[in-house]
Amino acid sequence: MRALPPARYRTPCVICTLALALAAPAGAATLTGTGRGDRLTGTKRSDVIRAGSGSDRVRARAGNDRVSGSRGNDRLLGEAGRDRVSGGPGRDRIDGGTGSDRIDGGTAADRMAGASGNDRVRGRSGADVLRGGRGNDRLTSDSGDDRLFGDSGNDRLSASTGNDDVFGGSGNDVLFAGKPGRGSAAGDDLSGQAGNDRLRGDVGNDRLDGHDGNDNVTAGRGEDDISGGAGNDRIDARDGDQDSIDCGPGEDTVLVDTVEDGVVDCENVTGPPDPPEA
Predict the structure, then answer these.
(1) Which residues of 230-239 are buried (b: 16+ CB within 10 A; e: fewer)?
(2) What b-and-e string marks burial along 167-189, b requiring 16 or more CB atoms within 10 Å of the CB?
């Protein structure tokens, strides 16, 4: 079989496989969809695959690939390699596969999974679902009401301006309700789950639950509901607002101010200094 040159291939068909593995091109290939709902399959090399405006299914296969969706509701699979995958404006489903991938959902309600590897997964507008999978991942929400799952590994999960639900998983995770001063005023729900986690609230009435492990929980502005869970936890609720605090089992330490709504099951409680005598 004559080897195909490493060039651009535009699919004239609904189902198209870029099967250069049988040949021996020296470089990567570029594959572009037609807008008619394509099935696009890359090679074992580092390909560039651009879906068309239809609802496409893309398998990048091995290699450090770049995959981008378009206006359709696409299914994008990075598979092996260190891939960069972006969804575009459709309601997409993205799986990075093996390798440390970078995933960007785009502007609709997307479902994204890093799978294995140390992945970076970012939602945009729309109610997105982000999963880190195995590995030490970084998950970042944006303007939609999103759900973030760290799964296994020591993950870093950041909510943003939506009303987000954030679950750390089984590692020693860091969970943020948002960048300082930029979180949702309506509040986020942060759950550390297993591991020694660090949780930080932001503006809004947040729910912060360390669950199992020796957790470090810091309230933000707003009337927060704080639970340490099992373990020897440290809770800092000095935010100037009425917070509700339940330290849970373990030898816990809590720092409070004068306006707390309730402090339950906390062994070591430290408040503000006494006012000076008149």
Answers:
(1) ebbbbbbbbb
(2) bbbbbbbbbbbbeeeebbeebbb
Three-class secondary structure assignment of the chain? CCCCCCCEEECCCCEEECCHHHCCCCCCCEEECCCCCCEEECCCCCCEEECCCCCCEEECCCCCCEEECCCCCCEEECCCCCCEEECCCCCCEEECCCCCCEEECCCCCCEEECCCCCCEEECCCCCCEEECCCCCCEEECCCCCCEEECCCCCCEEECCCCCCEEECCCCCCEEECCCCCCCCCCCCEEECCCCCCEEECCCCCCEEECCCCCCEEECCCCCCEEECCCCCCEEECCCCCCCEEECCCCCCEEECCCCCCEEECCCEEECCCCCCCC
- Where exactly are the structural domains of the chain? 44-131
pLDDT at res. 258: 83
Cα of 215 vs its chain's centroid, Å: 20
pLDDT along the chain (278 residues), means of 10: 41 45 54 94 95 96 96 96 95 97 95 96 95 97 94 96 95 90 76 98 95 97 96 96 96 92 93 62
What pLDDT was estimated at residue 6?
41
d(CA 147, CA 48): 29
Which is it for strands 111-113 and 120-122: parallel, antiparallel or unpaired? unpaired
Rounded to whole angstroms, how far apart are CA atoms 87 and 14? 20
Residue 271 has a pLDDT of 86
Residue (of 187, 186, 188, 126) closest to 157 by Cα position: 188
